Backbone:
C-alpha cells in the first residue's frame, strides 16, 4: 500500500489503533473499519500539521509489541500518543458503520418549522419564568 | 517606496477592518452617499469551503478553522503573544471579521450594565443609558435578522426579536426543567441565525457547526448581511490590505493610512476621516503602531489608555452527562436557552456583577483534541468506548460568561520582538484574572452544577477558568470567548478616556473607533449586538454631523 506514510509505519499505526480502540460490546476494533486505509491518508492530507508528530510517535513504536509501546509512548512523548489517538479516533468516527452503531447521523440537516407553536409555551414550561416577572435593575436615572 | 492606491482619490471616509463594526459603518455611510474605502487584511471567505456538512468537520475546527489565530496561522492572521495572559485571544481575520466563526449569540446588555458606578460603585458609568441605545438595538436586530422570543423578564419590555425563536431541542428542555425546579430564570435564547428565510439567508437546519462556518447560510455573517448593500452603494473594499499605520498631518488630523498589499507592496490610502474597526486587540495595536512626532506614544493616546482596560470575559463551564438520549450534537450553536438568574450584583456573594449562562450543545463524537498525557487507562482501550457511551449524545454545557471589570494593568502592548508576516509589530497581551472574577466564577460554577443536577445529570464535569498558559495555543480544552473589549474606552473626559460617546478620538477630531475597544465595561453578555448598536449610533451621529466634521484638507 502506498500513500503518505510507508507500509511499516502504517502497520504500526493499525496495530496501535487496535490497542487504543479495541472491540468492545457491539463496537468493532479500529482495524476492522479500515482506519489504516484511505481515511488515514485523507486525514493526514487535510491535517498535515499533525504529520511530523504522528510519524515521530509511530517510529518510536515500530517493531515493538503494540500495547507496551503505546503505554510507554504515553509516558515518554504524550503529545505523540495523543496525536496518534486523534487520527485513529477521527478515522474511526468517520466510518459509516461506526456512526450508525453510536446513533450519530453526522451534522445532518434537520429542517425546522419556524411557525410551529413552541412546546414550552403550550405546555407551560416557560410559564413560571414569566409569572415571576422582571429580574433586572432599571436604569437609575435618565441620561443627561 | 510607498505608492498611492491605484485610481484612488482621497476617500471621504477610510474604514480599517471589515468585521461587524466596520461593515455596519460601511453600509450606513455608503447608503448616505459617502465615498468610502475599507481596508481589510483578510480575504473574502468562500462559504463553499466550510466543513460543516462533511465528516471531517471536527478535525478541521482544530486547525484551519480554529478560532485562535496562533493555532490557525493563516497568511491573513497576525500572531498574538499571550505568554503573560491568563486567557488566549480568539478572532478571525477576513472580510466579515470574527463573525465568520462567532457563535451568533445576539445579546443586548441590561440597563444596569451602563450604570455600574452608580449602582455598584465600581468602574465607570457609560456616557449613555440602555434607553439611549435601545432604538439602535432594535434597528440592528432588524438588519441582522435575529431569532428569539420577546418578553424576556431579564430585559425591559420592547419590540423583541423580528424572527421566531429557534427550537430549544431536547437539551434546552432538559436544562429548563432543572431551572424550573430551582425557580431560576431561563429564556429561549436570541441568535443571529435565521429561523425562516430572511433577506437571502436560508432557515437554520440545526447542523450545529455554526462556529465552523454555517453551510446552510443561516448564520448572520457580515460579509452576507452588510457588505452587499455597502458594495451596491459604492464601497471600495480592498481585501488583503494590512494597515501598518494611520497617517496624520502637522495639524494633528488623520489623513489616511499606509498598508501592505498581498504582493508585499506598501501603499497609501488617503482620506478625510478614518474609522478604526480592528477589534479590541487590533485597534490598540494599530494606534500604538501609529507613532509620529506629534503623537510619540501612539495615536489618540494622550490619556495613556490606548490598549489598557482590556476585558475578555473569562469563561468557565459545567458539562452535564445524562442517561437520556439528547441528540446533543444538534444546533443551534448558537444557543438554545440562556439564563440571567445570577446576572445582577448581590454583594452577599462576595463579589460584584455577574454572568450570563447559556446552554451549548455537546458536539460530535470526536470532540476537542485529546489531552496529552491523560492516564492511558482513562483514555484508551475499553475506556475509549465507555467515555463515549457516557458523553456522546447525552451531554451539554452551561457556559458561564463572567463580566470582568476594567483594570488598567490588563492591557495590549506592542511586542518588542514578535511581528506579523509583513514585519509589523504584533500585539502582546498582559492580563490576569481579578479576585472578583475568580470569586464570581467559583460561585457561578457551583450554581451551574446545581442546575445540572436538578436537570437530572448523572455526572458533571466542571471546567473552571483556564489557568495553564501553555494550553493557549494547543487548542486543548479551550475556554475563551474571543470577546475583546475596553482598550480605547469611551467617555466625556479626555484625561480618562480615548474616544467620546460617538467614538470620536478626543485627540484627533477626524479619527474614530467603532469596535468593542470603546466599551466602558464589558457586561456579562456576548458583545457583538452591543458593538453593532454602538457603532450604528456613532455612525448615524457622524452622518448627521457631517457638515461640522473637522477634516484633513
Ligand atoms: C469563537 C468565537 C465565538 C464568538 N461568539 C460570539 C457570539 O456568539 N456572540 C457575540 O456577540 N460575539 C461572539 N464573538 C465575538 C465576535 O466575533 C466579535 O465581537 C465581533 O466579530 C467583533 O466585531 P469587530 O468588527 O469589532 O471585530 P472583528 O470581527 O474581529 O473584525 C476586525 C477586522 O479587522 C481586521 N484588521 C485588524 N487589524 C487590521 C489591520 N491592521 N489592517 C487591516 N485589517 C485589520 C481583521 O482582519 C478583522 O477582519 C465570538 C468570537 C469568537 C472568536
Ligand atoms: S445550527 Fe443553524 S446556523 Fe448553525 S450551522 Fe447549523 S444551520 Fe447554520
Residues:
Amino acid at each position: 500500500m502506498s500513500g503518505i506514510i510507508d507500509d511499516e509505519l502504517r502497520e504500526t499505526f493499525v496495530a496501535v489503533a487496535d490497542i487504543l480502540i479495541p472491540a468492545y460490546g457491539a463496537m468493532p476494533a479500529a482495524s476492522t473499519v479500515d482506519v489504516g486505509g484511505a481515511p488515514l491518508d485523507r486525514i493526514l492530507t487535510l491535517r498535515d500539521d499533525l504529520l511530523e508528530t504522528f510519524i515521530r510517535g509511530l517510529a518510536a513504536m515500530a517493531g515493538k509489541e503494540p500495547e507496551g509501546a503505546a503505554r510507554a509512548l504515553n509516558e515518554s512523548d504524550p503529545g505523540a500518543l495523543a496525536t496518534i489517538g486523534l487520527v485513529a479516533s477521527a478515522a474511526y468516527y468517520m466510518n459509516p458503520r461506526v456512526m450508525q452503531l453510536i446513533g450519530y447521523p453526522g451534522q445532518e440537516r434537520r429542517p425546522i418549522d419556524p411557525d410551529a407553536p413552541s412546546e414550552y409555551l403550550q405546555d407551560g414550561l416557560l410559564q413560571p419564568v414569566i409569572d415571576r416577572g422582571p429580574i433586572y435593575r432599571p436604569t437609575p436615572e435618565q441620561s443627561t | 517606496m510607498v505608492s498611492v492606491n491605484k485610481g484612488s482619490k482621497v476617500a471621504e471616509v477610510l474604514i480599517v477592518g471589515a468585521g461587524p463594526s466596520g461593515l455596519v459603518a460601511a453600509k450606513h455611510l455608503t447608503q448616505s452617499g459617502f465615498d468610502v474605502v475599507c481596508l481589510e487584511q483578510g480575504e473574502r471567505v468562500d462559504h463553499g469551503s466550510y466543513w460543516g456538512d462533511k465528516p471531517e468537520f471536527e478535525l478541521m475546527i482544530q486547525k484551519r478553522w480554529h478560532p485562535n489565530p496562533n493555532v490557525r496561522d493563516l497568511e491573513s492572521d497576525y500572531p498574538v503573544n499571550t505568554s503573560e495572559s491568563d486567557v488566549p485571544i480568539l478572532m478571525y481575520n477576513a472580510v466579515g471579521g470574527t463573525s465568520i466563526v462567532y457563535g451568533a449569540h445576539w445579546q443586548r446588555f441590561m440597563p444596569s450594565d451602563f450604570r455600574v458606578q452608580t449602582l455598584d460603585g465600581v468602574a465607570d458609568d457609560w456616557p449613555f443609558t440602555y434607553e439611549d441605545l435601545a432604538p439602535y438595538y432594535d434597528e440592528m436586530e432588524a438588519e441582522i435578522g435575529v431569532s428569539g422570543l420577546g418578553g424576556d423578564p431579564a430585559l425591559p419590555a420592547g419590540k423583541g426579536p423580528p424572527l421566531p425563536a429557534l427550537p430549544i431541542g431536547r437539551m434546552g428542555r432538559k436544562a429548563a426543567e432543572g431551572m424550573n425546579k430551582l425557580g431560576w430564570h431561563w429564556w429561549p435564547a436570541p441568535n443571529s441565525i435565521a429561523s425562516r428565510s430572511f433577506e437571502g439567508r436560508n432557515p437554520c437546519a440545526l447542523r450545529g457547526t455554526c462556529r465552523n462556518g454555517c453551510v446552510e447560510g443561516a448564520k448572520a455573517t457580515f460579509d452576507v448581511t452588510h457588505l452587499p448593500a455597502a458594495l451596491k452603494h459604492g464601497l471600495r473594499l480592498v481585501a488583503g490590505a494590512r494597515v501598518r499605520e494611520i497617517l496624520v498631518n502637522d495639524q494633528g488630523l488623520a489623513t489616511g493610512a499606509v498598508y501592505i498589499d498581498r504582493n508585499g507592496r506598501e501603499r497609501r490610502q488617503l482620506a478625510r476621516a478614518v474609522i478604526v474597526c480592528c477589534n479590541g486587540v487590533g485597534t490598540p495595536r494599530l494606534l500604538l503602531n501609529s507613532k509620529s512626532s506629534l503623537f510619540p506614544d501612539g495615536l489618540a493616546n494622550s490619556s495613556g489608555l490606548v490598549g489598557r482596560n482590556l476585558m475578555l470575559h473569562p469563561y468557565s463551564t459545567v458539562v452535564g452527562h445524562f442517561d437520556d438520549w439528547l441528540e446533543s450534537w444538534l444546533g443551534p450553536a448558537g444557543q438554545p436557552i440562556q439564563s440571567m438568574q445570577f446576572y445582577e450584583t448581590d454583594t452577599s456573594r462576595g463579589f460584584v456583577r455577574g454572568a450570563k449562562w447559556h446552554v451549548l450543545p455537546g458536539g460530535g463524537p470526536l470532540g476537542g483534541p485529546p489531552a496529552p498525557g491523560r492516564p492511558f487507562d482513562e483514555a484508551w482501550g475499553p475506556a475509549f468506548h465507555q467515555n463515549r457511551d457516557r458523553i456522546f449524545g447525552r451531554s451539554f454545557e452551561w457556559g458561564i460568561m463572567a463580566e470582568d471589570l476594567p483594570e488598567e494593568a490588563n492591557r495590549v502592548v506592542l511586542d518588542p520582538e514578535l511581528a506579523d508576516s509583513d514585519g509589523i509589530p504584533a500585539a502582546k497581551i498582559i492580563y490576569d484574572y481579578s479576585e472578583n472574577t475568580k470569586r464570581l466564577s467559583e460561585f457561578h460554577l457551583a450554581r451551574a452544577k446545581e442546575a445540572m443536577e436538578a436537570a437530572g445529570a448523572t455526572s458533571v464535569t466542571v471546567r473552571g477558568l483556564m489557568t495553564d498558559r501553555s494550553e493557549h495555543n494547543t487548542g486543548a480544552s479551550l475556554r475563551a470567548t474571543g470577546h475583546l473589549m475596553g482598550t480605547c474606552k469611551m467617555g466625556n473626559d479626555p484625561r480618562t478616556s480615548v474616544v467620546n460617546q460617538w467614538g470620536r478620538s478626543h485627540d484627533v477630531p477626524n479619527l474614530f473607533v467603532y469596535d468593542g475597544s470603546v466599551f466602558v465595561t464589558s457586561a456579562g453578555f456576548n458583545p457583538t449586538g452591543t458593538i453593532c448598536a454602538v457603532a450604528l449610533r456613532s455612525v448615524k451621529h457622524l452622518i448627521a454631523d457631517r457638515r461640522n466634521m473637522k477634516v484633513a484638507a
Remarks:
- DSSP finds 13 helices and 17 strands in chain B.
